[in-house]
Design brief:
The protein has nine helices and no strands. It is mainly alpha-helical. The chain folds into two domains: 122 residues, no CATH class; 61 residues, no CATH class. The termini are far apart.
């Protein structure tokens, strides 16, 4: 009976030891200084990508908010000749759509082509503001896996170096450090790259919705100016 209990305790201890060696922190520590440096770089890139993502999402969400009756009120003001009231309404809204309409209102009295050009120029500026720092997230999505693969190469070099020092005798303990570096950095790079890629695509989709909203309201405003009096 005691033999079975001792065997069970040994099995439990082995399981605990195995679980500890498979923990993420232990894997990172086992990867050596090179692996830890690369993991730290990838962690910083992940934080940067997440910060830009949440900051841009909040900004885009605020930019997409617009009163459903906004264009109806603009139409009433412009049709009634109340240009100043229309400008005040645009200033109160303070969204990309309202700023485009405000730019068009400020050009009332000039040829329709000039008004259209002014709105298009203002629209490009608004799109540039919406896409601020999004290219950084796109860069991270491509660079992170490459940094992870760099860790893979470094890990393999370390493993080969340990084999050469051992005189060609293969010992898994000697190879473990390099293999840990290779595997952990590759996984970390892929995770950061996938997260950044998904964040970038989501930002692009949300930005496109705001752009379509600006285009729709701009066309509606130009149609208003083109209506016969």
């Amino acid at each position: 009976m005691l033999l079975f209990q001792d065997a069970a305790q040994d099995t439990l201890q082995d399981g605990l030891i195995e679980e500890q060696t498979l923990s993420v922190i232990e894997l990172i520590r086992s990867g050596g200084v090179g692996g830890q440096v690369i993991i730290a770089m990838l962690f910083v890139l992940l934080l940067v990508a997440l910060y830009i993502y949440f900051e841009r999402i909040l900004a885009i969400k605020g930019a997409s908010r617009i009163d459903p009756n906004f264009m109806n009120q603009i139409k009433d003001h412009v049709s009634g000749g109340k240009v100043d009231a229309a400008q005040v309404l645009c200033a109160q809204m303070n969204t990309p759509v309202s700023r485009l309409i405000s730019k068009g209102i400020s050009r009332i009295g000039k040829p329709l082509e000039d008004i259209n050009s002014a709105i298009e120029n203002a629209g490009r500026l608004e799109i540039y503001k919406l896409e601020k720092n999004m290219s950084v997230v796109a860069t991270i999505s491509g660079v992170a896996p490459m940094i992870g693969f760099l860790g893979t190469v470094i890990g393999m070099i370390l493993s080969i170096f340990e084999i050469s020092k051992a005189g060609g005798n293969i010992d898994m303990k000697l190879l473990s450090g390099g293999l840990y570096t290779a595997m952990t950095t590759t996984v970390a790079g892929l995770i950061v790259g996938i997260v950044a890629y998904m964040a970038y695509n989501h930002m692009v989709v949300r930005t496109d919705k705001v752009v379509h909203q600006m285009e729709s309201n701009s066309v509606e405003f130009l149609d208003l100016l083109n209506e016969p009096i």
